[in-house]
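Researcher: Following up on the earlier apo prediction. This time include the ligand. It's pyridoxal-5'-phosphate, with the SMILES given after the sequence.
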Amino acid sequence: MEASSNGLEKAPGVLQQASVRTPVPGPLSARLLERQVLNESNVRTYPRGLPIAIGRGAGSYLEDLDGNVFIDFLTGAGALPLGHTHPELVEAITRQLSRLTHGLDFPTEIRDEFISAQISMLPERMRSSMRIEFCGPSGADAVDAALKLCKTATGRSEIVTFQGAFHGCSHAAMTITGLVAAKERVAGRVPGVHFFPYPYPLRCALGGGEESGQRCLEYLERSLRDPLGGIPRPAAVIVEMVQGEGGVIPAPGDFVRGLRRVTRELEIPLIVDEVQTGGGRTGTWFAFEQHGIEPDVIVASKAIGGMGMPVAVVLHDERLDAFAPGAHTGTFRGNQLAFAAGVASARIIRRDGILEHAREQGAYALGVLEGFARDHEIVREARGSGLMLGFELVDPVTGEPNTQAASAVQRGAIERGLIVELGGRGDCVVRLLPPLNVSRETLDEGFEILDSVLAEIPLAVAHEAQLR
Ligand SMILES: Cc1ncc(COP(=O)(O)O)c(C=O)c1O
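Model: Understood. Below is the ligand-bound prediction.
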């Protein structure tokens, strides 16, 4: 497996080690960043904390326009499961490029292969009963489609979602997302949405600790069963197996299994949003598999496009197949390049044992991050599942989220050659999404950078919440 999955990192002449030779941003990056500020909307996000202009990428590495090389532990927000420009994916896309690129929802051979690949990745018991729906090529559109489908199939209107959730930025997906600040400036959200606490041992609304999952489940079950509970039977419950943007918070197994039991008993479709966790990120193709449950609806995007190619799907039980023809259409439901990349990447993932590799490297990486939590007093908790990882920065005295320290870590890391993303309450969680085929050496190279950055966080920053 080493040769093919990590071949790109090891091959001569490609990017294989972090090296930062200029201030960040370097002069060429700075020029494009300035042009971006002039020309693009204020809504742009990533280059604010990670101020580079990208030249090229290979495997786990990115090179900016100034020739600085960074380890990329953001990898297209999870859309690059095999890293940048994997040669076999480039070849698959190139082959498809001269044949057909766009096919609406007409059948094509590569679309059919993509469908078979996706279905074959489901747990065996689900394969014969699931239908696949292609949506516009974003996770948010697939989330919207899933909500509409469940409303259509049940004739009900309420949706249950969770605090801390992230489901996207379309109007409905934003409404069922936890992020309050983003909503406050948008009037008139989708009605009938109810937020419940999500298990979060460090800061759960119902009290922290290991009981958090059980308490959240009991509260939800009681509320849904209570004739005075205030919520008519919902059209769907939507949940992430690991809240990603919410701060890399894995849902405990007892909570997930309990949620499946309750929703089944009350005949409420359970939607699992696997936009970020799906396609192998957590070490199984879908994260729900680890809890032995079968959701009614699965939403997937990001990694299933193989190489950042745009595609999104809703996989749902055939009993929910309630849309009339054209009830959820979109021009971009047939990107043939995404199908080609998705087919090739699913094949490579299977062939090279990448899921097993992700589980092994993920367990190793979590161990290293737990070491950070022991060694650095501002790191309160390391969390993760497979190669979806994070650690939370706090004021060591108050335990409050430490936004300033997280931002200093992100900044210090990029200056030393490592790209990481932030998330969670007050963006206090440093998030890592390395490619699933990342090598141990690259992981270690990244962790060394993080360790040295953490060691140098000034005391004044570490205690920011106290000093404020
Ligand atoms: C769990 C989850 N759902 C939905 C989305 C939205 O996907 P997109 O950005 O493709 O609309 C995301 C994006 O990060 C996500 O993490």
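Model: Residues 77, 138-140, 143, 166-168, 240, 244-245, 273, 275-276, 301 surround pyridoxal-5'-phosphate (CB under 6 Å).
Researcher: Noted. I'll compare it with the apo version next.
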